[in-house]
Design brief:
The chain is 46% helix and 17% strand. It has 289 residues and is an alpha/beta fold.
Length: 289
């Protein structure tokens, strides 16, 4: 099947929420790792998401060019070509993009806009804006027009409030631990700011999760934070589990806690560190031998 169009992708997310499961979003950095993710989805007969960070996108364009729009478009085009002969849907997303790097996401949205004009599906189904380094009001000031732009093209926007700890793509988090936990008030503020736009978005609320792999006991996940935030939003806006939530930094998390997050509306779970190890460790072992 082809990479899902907008309607098909929204159906995927709705199905995940209703049936309480999350799609794995596998981070890739080149055609080899993209092919591995595609093969895993095909062999497991599961729809899924192939995802790119800005660092991976620069790498995909070659270190001499280092153009993240060109690199991401190249990998996305490859996935579009390979996915059409599969029996599962392979969606495409971009990962963390801070405010100072938004030219990357905007460039990719513009490419999707051109594709839509010619009757094609969007290049990427979703883009993430990571405004967690900003005060929440400033975060939403950037997110609102970006959501409007995504809505017009048929793209899902992912936003973050609170900070996922650890390090990813060369960016380390050193902020206070209280920022690792998104409050119900934060979730209400995001709802107040973004719901009126009526564009589809995902929310990476934080509940103690961190990027990378840590010794057992060093990561204090509190999934009930998601439950409390969803309840606060539902009380004001009606419904239940109003947000489509995203689980970042899940490497090494207890299965029971992963399952618990699914009860509270998590529909996408990012996978990066584990697959990086799976790819790099056999190479390191071979070189050592």
């Amino acid at each position: 099947m082809p990479v899902p169009n907008t309607e098909q992708y929204l159906e995927m997310l709705d199905n995940a929420k209703v049936n309480k499961f999350a799609f794995p979003a596998i981070n890739v950095s080149n055609i080899v790792t993209a092919n591995a993710a595609i093969a895993a989805f095909a062999e497991s007969k599961s729809d899924g998401i192939v995802q790119l960070s800005i660092g991976a996108a620069k790498f995909a364009s070659g270190t001499h060019i280092a153009n993240p729009v060109m690199g991401a478009a190249s990998i996305a085009d490859h996935v579009h070509r390979m996915a059409k002969d599969l029996d599962v849907f392979i969606a495409l997303h971009t990962d963390h993009c801070q405010a100072e790097e938004l030219a990357w996401v905007n460039g990719l949205i513009d490419l999707s806009k051109e594709r839509r004009k010619s009757g094609q599906a969007v290049l990427f189904n979703g883009h993430m804006f990571d405004g967690s380094a900003l005060a929440l009001d400033k975060n939403m000031e950037v997110a609102r027009p970006l959501l409007e732009k995504c809505k017009d093209v048929g793209i899902v926007l992912e936003v973050e409030a609170g900070i996922v700890g650890g390090e990813e793509d060369g960016a380390a988090t050193t902020d206070s631990t209280e920022k690792l936990y998104t409050s119900p008030e934060d979730m209400l503020y995001v709802a107040d700011q973004l719901f009126p736009i009526k564009g589809r978005f995902m929310f990476a609320a934080t509940f103690g999760n961190v990027h990378g792999i840590y010794k057992p006991g060093n990561v204090k996940l509190t999934p009930s934070i998601l439950k409390d935030g969803q309840a606060a939003v539902a009380e004001k806006f009606g419904g239940s589990n109003c947000f489509d939530l995203v689980f970042h930094g899940g490497s090494g998390s207890p299965v029971e806690q992963i399952h618990e997050t699914l009860e509270y509306g998590v529909v996408k779970m990012n996978v990066d560190t584990a697959t990086q190890f799976a790819f790099s460790q056999p190479i390191a072992k071979h070189m050592k031998e």
